[in-house]
Amino acid sequence: MFKSQRYLYSAARRPPTARPFCLTVSLTHPHDPYTIHREFWDRYEGEDIDLPEINIDKEAQDEHSKRLLKVCGLWDEDMPEEAVKRARRAYYGAVSYVDDNVGKLLRTLEDCGMDEDTIVIFSADHGDMLGERGLWYKMSFFEASVRVPLLISYPKTLQPSVIPQNVSNLDILPTMVELIDGRMDDRLPMDGKSLVPYLHGNAPTDDSVYGEYCGEGTIAPLMMIRRGPWKLVVCPADPPQLYNLDWDPKELNNLANNTEPAIRYIFDAFLKEANERWDFKIIQEDVLRSQRTRRLCWDALTKGRFESWDYQPNESAANAYIRSNIPLDELELRARYPPVDALGREKKRGDARGVAAAYGE
User: Fold this and answer.
1) CA distance 239 to 297
2) What is the distance between the alpha carbons of residues 226 and 216, in angstroms, rounded to a whole number?
3) 3-class DSSP state for residue 12?
4) Please, which residues have CB within 8 angstroms of residue 169's CB and are 6 or more apart in sequence?
5) Cis geometry, peptide bond prior to residue 338 (ω within 30 degrees of 0)
6) Beta strands 209-213 and 150-153: pairing type?
């Protein structure tokens, strides 16, 4: 967070003709393991932490959920109620931690005079079951796991509103491109769509969202189609699941075997679309091949001097702190905001050239 705030102050010092900045700030919270700093744990002292609303007997779980319980070591164990409350309390503390840190960034934008003309997008890559249905972590397409926040703020252009249609994180990139009047390269594949029409109250009728999962707990590709209130979850190894979230927001009534003609028509159309969209056999073969390839690479990396294939940010100290190769005025301008003129009077943002901290320096 410190580096992010420092970056924003540096961006504010640049001249108006400088290239606009783009900053990604990634926080691991909220996430398992369910623990948090004492400050945020203590915020929920004395609170009546809620228990999961939905409890499903293990044998009554869908096949994928059964596998998840076994993967997580919970098939033969029952979490005590007190442990469930502690885990949820820590998770709520982690949410407060994120909220506080986002607040720091927004206040920094305001301090720098950049809050009105900066696009701010807040989202997450997954939710957490937090004990609902007896499940924990992510790894499924139930709402608690797959539903995430998506907030877009651009005060100069957008008015506050709530978009009820289904959207996806895949939509963030094309949305950003359109918000800055850019153009997508038609040669690149893009499953997402720009949300700018939604943001101006012109949402299209098709709000389809697609999900793909081939991670822990799966023995074959697990896919999802969400359209309107309907959600299909399909996997070649498991019976399909169909839910209507308007009628059944807790996803307790699987309609895949419902014989009512209208529901049967929707299910058959969804299933046909899924089989046309995804070649499950080829996807599974590709995943297994990729696993073997990465396993080979990992075995090689662990021989001799270990060299991680993870991204390593390169931060050079040569141009930071007090360095004799940096002109003094420029160096001191980096150390303060807002810039001032020769008499110490505040100058407008982007006019930070030529004068350092005081007259004559």
Assistant:
1) 35
2) 22
3) helix
4) 123, 125, 148, 150, 192
5) yes
6) unpaired
Identify whether 240 is preceded by a cis peptide bond (ω within 30 of 0): no
Burial class of 235 by CB neighbour count within 10 A (0 to 12, 13 to 18, 19+): buried
Percent of the chain with pLDDT over 70: 91
User: pLDDT digit string (tens) for 278-331?
Assistant: 999 999 999 999 999 999 999 998 899 888 878 888 877 876 777 777 777 766
Instruction: Convert the pLDDT of each residue in 255-293 to its tens digit.
Output: 999 999 999 999 999 999 999 999 999 999 999 999 999
Distances, alpha carbon 259 to alpha carbons 122, 169, 271, 312, in Å? 42, 34, 15, 55
Question: β-strands 222-227, 120-123: how paired?
Answer: unpaired
> Which residues lie closer than 8 Å to 66 by C-beta, 6 or more apart?
58, 75
Q: What angle do CA 47, 52, 56 make, to 5 degrees?
A: 160
What's the chain's average pLDDT?
A: 90
Mean pLDDT of 136-163: 95
**Residue with token string 């499940």:** 135
Please give the distance of CA 359 from its chain centroid, rounded to a whole number.
47
The pTM of the full predicted model, rounded to 2 decimals, is 0.88
* Separation between Cα atoms, residue 353 and residue 360, nearest integer Å: 14
| Residue 84 CB coordination number (10 Å) | 19
Provide the β-strand partners of residue 213. Answer: 222
Q: Tokens standing for 97?
A: 């931690």
